[in-house]
Design goal:
Elements (H helix, E strand, L loop, with lengths): L15 E5 L6 E2 L2 E2 L3 H15 L3 E5 L16 H11 L3 E4 L7 H9 L5 E4 L13 H9 L3 E4 L21 E4 L1 H15 L5 E5 L8 H10 L2 E4 L4 H7 L14 H14 L2 E3 L3 E5 L13 E4 L8 E5 L1 H12 L3 E5 L12 H12 L3 E4 L3 H8 L8 E2 L3 H8 L5 H4 L5
Parallel strand pairs: 1-4, 1-7, 4-6, 5-6, 7-8, 9-10, 9-15, 10-11, 15-16, 16-17
Antiparallel strand pairs: 2-3, 12-13, 12-14
Helix pairs in contact: 1-2, 6-8, 7-8, 9-10
The structure holds adenosine monophosphate.
The site of adenosine monophosphate (AMP) has 15 residues, from strand 14.
């Protein structure tokens, strides 16, 4: 359990509360195309409003690289949040984030009112955790709440630096929920505990593989990273994505699994094509072969149907499942079958199902299985670092209980 003070441990009546949220939502033509992160932030905001806090929200959006970029303004978020909360969220449109608008709005606020600051990454110091901007943020508030799980793996001004200049720093409900779900799964799982990893490269997930292998009962590998494992087994993998430098690592992991008595499942069959689809959702011709029969001039782009069944069965017998990373090039409907099969199996199981953020979360939501999962993380990078067993600086910076 998270040993950090939360919004339940403080009295915010009449106090200015700076809340770091993760409002990093996808935008198209100024419209929010996925508002899950906004909805996930509501419980903490509503609690602070109900308790009579003066709520000052902040977040980053995209990568403006330290300068104002109108297309990455948080203005559309203020508008949508006002609708979701049923009360005005006043937008403080300062290009320097903490500027005259923000200061005046913070001074004029009444209990239960809400304002939103401009994109914190309009300031170059934000991602460097610089002292000056941290102090400016702190000067707006009496209390700091960090509810941005999606950036918890980064030490920036708005989630770490600011805590050095306020007396009280606590976590919000979303942060608490994320850490409770992921932490319980990894450190105290109801067994059998099945971890499913996919995505592009082995190199990106080395520590996740090693850490989860220690904690889980069955580790399932799919996606592009499976082919480095298959090559490590001595199979021909054709032109599939392979990390030649990591073949030794994959061998080590397979030996480790054996030694620990853990099951490590690799694809038994695979969907192949002559080349990577271009554009990614192009109509392509595919066939299915056993994993040890990939022709030298073909590329594996999804798990095959036998593998999908094998993985779905493993997921169905589990009591806890953690999933991060697609099973194939799911952006192409022809190559999304493996990812869909796994998502469906997770939707149908009674197990506690936890979806790491990023592509797997997007896939599950797009397929309409979102409400069938126990928890869908709002943070891809953060959940991966948590699954690696790393301490998240954004969480560490909050006051201990
Ligand atoms: P990641 O960001 O590591 O989770 O990887 C996600 C990406 O991996 C997606 O864009 C997929 O298209 C890609 N991917 C999944 N399977 C394969 C594969 N067999 N070959 C190449 N790329 C893949």
């Amino acid at each position: 359990m998270l040993n950090k003070k939360s919004v339940d441990d403080i009295n915010v009546k009449g106090k200015k509360v700076l809340v770091r949220c993760d409002f990093n939502v996808p935008l198209k033509d100024g419209k929010i195309t996925d508002e899950n992160r906004l909805v996930a932030a509501l419980p903490t905001i509503k609690k602070l409003i109900a308790d009579g806090g003066r709520v000052i929200l902040c977040s980053h959006l995209g990568k403006p690289k330290g300068e104002p970029k109108p297309e990455l303004s948080l203005a559309p978020v203020a508008k949508r949040l006002s609708e979701l909360l049923g009360q005005e969220v006043k937008f403080a449109a300062d290009p320097e984030v903490v500027g005259p608008n923000a200061r005046a709005a913070a001074e004029a606020m009444k209990d239960g009112e809400v304002i939103l600051l401009e994109n914190t990454r309009y300031r170059a110091e934000e991602t460097k955790n610089g002292e000056a901007f941290s102090k400016e943020l702190a000067s707006l508030c009496d209390v700091f709440v960090n509810d941005a799980f999606g950036t918890a793996h980064r030490a920036h001004c708005s989630n770490v630096g600011v805590t050095q200049f306020v007396d009280t720093s606590v976590v919000g409900y979303l942060m608490q929920k994320e850490i409770d779900f992921l932490g319980n799964a990894v450190d105290n799982p109801v067994r059998p505990f099945v971890a499913i990893l996919g995505g592009a490269k082995v190199a990106d997930k080395l520590n996740v593989i090693a850490n989860l292998l220690e904690k889980c009962d069955t580790l399932i590998i799919g996606g592009g990273m499976a082919y480095t494992f298959l090559k490590a087994k001595g199979y021909e993998v054709g032109t599939s994505l392979v990390d030649d430098e990591k073949i030794g690592y994959c061998k080590e992991m397979m030996e480790k699994a054996e030694k620990l008595g853990k099951k490590l499942l690799l694809p038994v069959d695979t969907t192949i094509a002559s080349a990577f689809p271009n554009p990614i959702d192009a109509q392509i011709e595919v066939s299915v072969v056993d994993s040890d029969k990939i022709p030298a001039d073909m590329m594996g782009l999804d798990i095959g149907p036998k593998t999908a069944e094998l993985y779905a069965d493993a997921a169905k017998t589990a009591k806890t499942v953690v999933w991060n990373g697609p099973m194939g090039v799911f952006e192409n409907p022809i190559l999304a079958k493996g990812t869909i099969a796994v998502a469906k199996a997770l939707a149908e199981t009674d197990a506690t199902t936890i979806i790491g953020g990023g592509d797997s979360a997007a896939a599950v939501n797009q397929l309409g299985f979102g409400d069938k999962m126990s928890h869908i993380s709002t943070g891809g990078g953060a959940s991966l670092e948590f699954l690696e067993g790393k301490e998240l600086p954004g969480v560490a910076a909050a006051n201990d209980k």
